[in-house]
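Researcher: Go.
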Amino acid sequence: MGSGAFILVLAVALAESIAPAERKCQLNGLWRNDQGSLMEISALRDNGDFEGQYLTRVTLSGGCAQISPLKGTQQQLGEEGWSTFAFTVRWDKFSNATTAFVGQCFVDAGGKETLTTMWLLREAVRSLEEDWKATRVGRNVFTRKRTTKGKILPSLSPPCEDVSSSAL
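Model: Structure:
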């Protein structure tokens, strides 16, 4: 076997032998989910708390979505595998709703980071009789979107224009 082939086999063997704790998933950065929504986590503290922004591509009203704040916490990675996390998004700029996400971060042998999440969305209703329809549940899978460093979500957000004034 030539030296190039030997190095390739050695590299693959080493990549496969790396334990999950050695291939840590970093939450910082920009993520895109299976619905096309974007999430940017920009502040991850030593205690696991984090903040960021979320731009949904799915709205309850069908109207223009705006960037919404998110806050969460990440369980510190232990000996048992990949870290878990939870965060909330407050949709107060365009909807009277809040979503709570819980999930886990994975890194495959090739280094691809994936966040799998389940969420509960709570929409405000006018009465107790309407409570039955106020909570929705779903699942999203996020993958890292490679970009330059810095806060970039505002530059990716489409402007919300007043449709009535554009016709004038």
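Model: Residues 8-21, 162-168 have pLDDT under 50 and may be disordered.
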